[in-house]
Amino acid sequence: DLGVQSGIVDRAGAWYSYKDTRIGQGKDNAREFLRENPVMAREIENLVREKYGVALLAPVTETPKSKAASDDEAKA
């Protein structure tokens, strides 16, 4: 909601998008997309934090999916 209010996330009808990426139709789908894409989620969160003068968080360097894949490779 803050992303839309601050103009960082666009909303057209039920669709939410960030830059050129559609992140979901409806708030629940957009929320799920951001859970699955933590790098983008952190980028949006930091832009919102910057706009409101709140301390930024460290960037996310890998997604949970890629971490799971690297854990599997380490076990092999």
From TrEMBL:
It comes from the Bacteria. This is Recombinase RecA. Residues 1-53 form the RecA-like C-terminal domain. Signal peptide: none annotated.
